Batch of 4 targets.
Target 1
Amino acid sequence: MAKILILGLGNPILSDDGIGIEIAHRIEDKLKDHTSCFAWEPDEDIDVIEASIGGLAILDLIVGYEKLIVIDAIKTKKGNPGTLYKVKVADFSSTIHISSPHDVNFATAIEIGKRCGVSIPEQIDIYAIEIKDNTTFSEQCTLEVRKAVPKTVNTIIRQSLNSISTSKLQNRRFRLKN
């Protein structure tokens, strides 16, 4: 099993809501591009997965990894579309609840997994991209969000994958899992 999971979340047919999946694919492309300073050779150290799920089902995807990089959309009241936020699971601790097994957010799923002895990644980086539209049926993001994609990809790679030394990168590989 790979050591790092890049998990792109969202719904790719609801305009900006698919940005997490888009960013995960762009990171994968950048890592495969041998002309990129971020490139590395195929191995089994990084998995890139896209998912349109939430709640406890997330646990099935993340079990056994050492590091998890989650990329998803967020819509706040005053945010500017395309803004990238880096948050921690602890930032959502006030939202942990279990009123119904069908209504479990990410933080609650992680907490339940830990309490049940599930092998949760030791390090979890969560990136949220501010979106404008998550209600229009479209496979395209809005212009504001699309413009932010290149910078967002580079930022996530630098912040979350930079801890792997350059010499190690040359011997690492990744695979896309659906």
Target 2
Amino acid sequence: MAFAVNIYFDPETEALLQRYWKALDHANIPNKTQRAFRPHITLCIFDDINCDDCECYINQVSSQLSMHAITLDHIGIFNNGQKVLFLAPAPNEKMLRMHKEIYETLAQYARNPWKLYHPNEWVPHSTLANDLEEEELMRALAIALEIPLPIHTEISQIGIIEFDPIHTIFEVDIKD
């Protein structure tokens, strides 16, 4: 099992992305794990983490994330082994600084961070579909191109999930 630290969008953006997830489902685009999650951006993943210490830290940092705006402005594809279709923000200095601080602090309470989420490797993204074959990717992309970009959103929550199976450990509302 592993643990992911995720940031979640405001309710309107979450509902919009879930509508497109449903459109992908109706088009028989497979998504082996994503539908069990809420739309999100993963900040880091660790093989193991002390959740009590992390929850204390997350509660403290949540006030610093207040009104953190994100603009999802492009569609992307990871094509390194498995094909993944995603929406992504153009990362800005504030987002990268927030990610690095959270990653480095939580790493003190965790074991075996996943390399793709290291501050120098991280590509912020919100997965639309994953584990796609070439033909599925093309069909999924046609649906994704209907998403009205840019999407201006805010971070509404931050939390930790454990997976597989998927289990929410905690979520903290971002305070104004």
Target 3
Amino acid sequence: MGWAIERKNRFTAMYYDASGRALSAGTFATPKQAKHAWEEAEAKVRKGRRRGLKDEKLTLREYVYDHWGPAVKLSLEIRTWQGYESKLRIHVLPYLGDMPVGALRYSNIQGLLNERQSAGLSPASAKGVLRVIRLVTKAAVRDELLETDPSAPCKLRGVANSTGSECWTILDPALYSRFVTWLGTLDDRWRIMLLLNLDLGARFSEIRGLRAKHILTLHNHVVIEETIGEAPKKVLDERDDNDDWPHGQYRIGNTFFFKPTTKSNQRRRVEINADVMKEVSAYIQQRNLGPEDLLFTTDSGMPIGGSWFTRRIWKPFLQSNQLPDMRFHDIRHTVASWNDAAGLPLNKNMAHMGHGSIVTANLYVHSLRGKAAETASARDQLLGRTKAQ
């Protein structure tokens, strides 16, 4: 859709050409004239695209599995691709898979979403389905199979005005107090892991990939640069069979694989509290861990499975101590929110969390309703903290 830019009481009509470049359609005396100009320019672009549309009989299923999928698969995390593929396979392709991509219209996609929600698909799941549909249709526009994106105006019941904040449990001072108090009921390994992550706010794959060499005791810093991912055995078997491992990645056991980078490809050093560092250092010494040894593993020395940890450690800890039914990832949202409440500038908060964009960073910051001073002081008091030097 075009737009107008006001410059000294004149209005410049702007539009995107077929390659996505922003161009001017002229400068006019009124907004109405500018709107008419960019609408005409866009009409010419659409007409040109229609003459150049390719493979008009290509079905959506063929496009997903033979064109779009192979193009994006290797650039995504394994679990991310699995999520996209399963949503398309279960909720989209059985209904729209045999339609030519060029025949897709708003009414088809909106009708599918309405039907899926009426059949019981939750608002959150429907949001995920719409997201992957939009990824596919936007790619089809770029591939000149569609003139415009038919999914752009689609809406969902129950999520139109959602900000996402209600999806997360953020530790306010009272909840934080209960959480830390009950950490003492855990095995020392899991207590240290959760205590450390209350400072780091790391992704689970990053915590799983921490080694003793990443703990810089002298400076109270933790280096986050490697991850250990998790995927079904058959997916990793397929990578082995096709020798399809990206540079630096390799398999660990049946369901784990090593990555020399983080999700955002950012190496970062995070300063943690001096008292927490003392506990982590003591833990490393007690377990006699070498520089390359993983900090946190199962009893057999293997990386921690996400589902195993949730089922055997995390959920029982919450339930036995009457804590809210929160997710491990909520700790990450909590740390980002506490940093913001304590007045940490956005760029430093992004560096701490390893976020690659301001948009993502803002999604992780949730309001603590003006309790910045109370929150920060409560956290330090609970752990007997002093500012890390």
Target 4
Amino acid sequence: MKRLLLTIVMLFALAVPAAADDWGDALAAYNRGDYATALRLWKPLAEQGNAWAQFSLGLMYARGQGVTQNYAEALRWYRLAAEQGFSYAQWSLGLMYENGQGVPQNYAEAMKWYRLAAEQGSAEAQRNLGSMYENGVGVLQNYAEALIWYQRSAELGDAVAQYYLGNMYAEGKGVPLNYTKSLTWKKRAAEQGHAIAQYDLGKMHFSGEGVPINFVEAHKWFNLALAGLPAAAELSDLRARWFDVLATLSSVMTPEQIAEAQRLAAEWKPKPERPPGKQ
């Protein structure tokens, strides 16, 4: 699924399901890529009403792991878990409705399931709600409401929400324009490894937007952004533009400044704010 990025290892790290032996064997099989065994062990648990197992099957059908990819079947298992109040499944069901996977695209249904998950503390669902309010998707555009949901998600440590919140402050959407607060939120996202936030942080240090001009810091963040940008073909133009900005910056720096920026980038380590498996 387009934004379903959590791995199965993370998702189940906090679980304590019934039928622990079968569960553990299924998880071990999944982790070693033996999807047929994982499916065989999880399916009886799912049929008995175990929400974790139902969600697991939904994920496997959505990804085509051990089965032919089948969004309709993924939707069925997600719904069974979601109707039990399982927030991972509610969020996933919302994604399927938003993206029209296995079901006609339906933003109202997406909002419904996101909200149910968000009210249980799902940072991803809170962020998705914020995005729908910001962009007026399935709901009247409402920057104030978007800000509320982004803030909740950002405070839980969601890097994407932190970046979006930083943009809200940078553009004065729902709040007075505030480059200092924009910098604060984008830096939190950047420190977690969010490439676009890193690039924006570089621009802010380059131009002195919300922070004193600092070419070394700007160069460091541009380098990190380029290193963290996925090597997807559709991002090639973006990558080229970022390289051009880095070249422009480098042209006004001394060799010593560039060396210092490269050293800082090489020593940088991401600082995740959320424990593995926390939705």
